[in-house]
Amino acid sequence: MPSVGGGESALEHTADEWDAQLACACRGDGLEAAYQPIVSTAQGTVVGYEALARFPGYSEKNPEAWFAAARTRGKSAQLESMALRTALKGRDSLPTNCFLTLNVSPELLFSQDVRSVWSEEGDLSGLVIELTEQSPIDSYLKLEPDLNQLRAAGALIAIDDAGAGYAGLRHLLSLRPSMIKVDRDLIQDVDRDETKRALIEMLGTFASRVDAWILAEGVEREGELDALVALGVPLVQGYYLARPGPPWASIDVGLAHRLASRQPVIDGVTVRALLENATTATSVEHAASCFTDDPKLSLVVLLQNHQRPVAVLDENAARFGVLSQGMRVNVDTSISEALARSMTRDEPHRFEPLLVTDNAGRFVGIARMERLIIALSASTLQ
After folding, report:
1. Residue 179, Cα to own-chain centre: how many angstroms?
2. In which band, very low, low, confident or very high, does the pLDDT at 3 lie, cut at 50, 70 and 90?
3. pLDDT value of position 209
4. For helices 76-88 and 112-121, what crossing angle results, to 10°?
5. If you average pLDDT over residues 67-78, what whole number do you get?
6. What is the C-alpha separation between 231 and 43, in angstroms, rounded?
7. Residues of the chain with CATH 3.10.580.10
8. Interacting residues of 160 by C-beta distance below 8 A, sequence separation 6+
9. What is the pTM of this model?
10. CB-CB contact of 335 with 376 (8 Å)
11. Hey, what CATH class is 271-381 in?
12. CATH code for the domain defined by 15-260
């Protein structure tokens, strides 16, 4: 069961050491499973877990090193099948209405070792089989019998790392997955990258047409989560929500409440539909320190008393104390009205993000001009 992320750098082992340790791990010695929660963005609840192989009984902890060594020595099927069995030990106690995802290399689906795991389980309802990107798929036709048997037994099929490696459009079309996991490279800084947002939105449209779910993995920042929620991505996982751990962990109560209490987007006609969080500061000096702490930060919102926004600062403005009054709009202002008001600003500041406030004038987020323009353009085409 290949696992991406975490672990130490691969340690050097001799061939004999690897052979001996792989033999032990393939018997289940020193091999454990960790479970990372998968969260519904609409409900703010854990709806599933991904099982990840861990090797606490050995000096080498990195799962990637273990599965690479197994591939080199022809032990992939034995190690993956044992990792699957280890993960499935806790299946009987899986919370009601939660699914369990298991990683499998596509080329091992028709190995007898892996097939025996499914036979032992019988009913596979509630399991999601993730086809990982460890190697290219030479023949989709060759996979069909095993995929059909898995579906017939109740399992769902997922594609891991969509948008990276070999998981291209042909991959999506040929495998007909029920779940599409979006690669971490596309999720990283999605709140700061319009191209990534557009691609994720495209994947979401594709998924809805083929009756599949989108799952964004590797969410590590609040801004990334908020952007994904705004894009309508239904499922998320990552260190920001919860790290892999024992079965069956929950997420932070405050985070769950914040997700569940978000206002629903109605037709996308107001600024509320495009709202995103931003780093805030209470002084110019504070703002400057925010840029120092996060070199990737693009802007900071300056707040005054009672959480009222004053200005949008970039790094130079914060460093030199150059302030210009930002434009504030109410969260329920229509997109067309917000754009019309924006065009009245002085030309140097015309395309700065808008400062969005609630009915009491308190800061609730920003609305970027490019997203307002895209949303208005889309509404006029409908």
Report:
1. 13
2. very low
3. 74
4. 20
5. 91
6. 15
7. 271-381
8. 103, 130, 131, 132, 133, 167, 181
9. 0.74
10. yes
11. alpha beta
12. 3.20.20.450
